[in-house]
Amino acid sequence: MKILVAEDDDVNIIVYTRMLSKLGHEITLARNGKEAFEASKVENFDLILMDINMPLMDGIESTHLIRKSTLNTSTSIYAITATTTDIVLAQAGKRTFDRILMKPISFMALKELTNTQKETCLETTWHSPATN
Fold first, then answer.
1. Which of 6, 107, 112, 128 falls 20 to 30 Å from 26 in CA-CA distance?
2. Would you state the pLDDT for residue 128?
């Protein structure tokens, strides 16, 4: 799967990229919400992992912009956060994010959610052959 990882913390970047690479996924990295939004305008992703608290543009604003753009409007966007603040939960309730993931994310949890997402992507891209 093609996964956009929006994360500004160097340690988390190393952890996520190693885990996702080990699982065989293609990773694009954005170090802030602005970079994530820019990447989403030029490439279609199967999944976006979006940190909430980032410099220049936070994950909430970036996700709103991605949802309004032409690409990735239906791509699943999972919020990544270390705290369950009221604003994150409120945004999730408004369907800004498809899911909220709490840091730290274990390898097994990441494997399970990417496998589930991969199955969803396959289901939505499969088309039955046309009959004449």
1. 128
2. 38
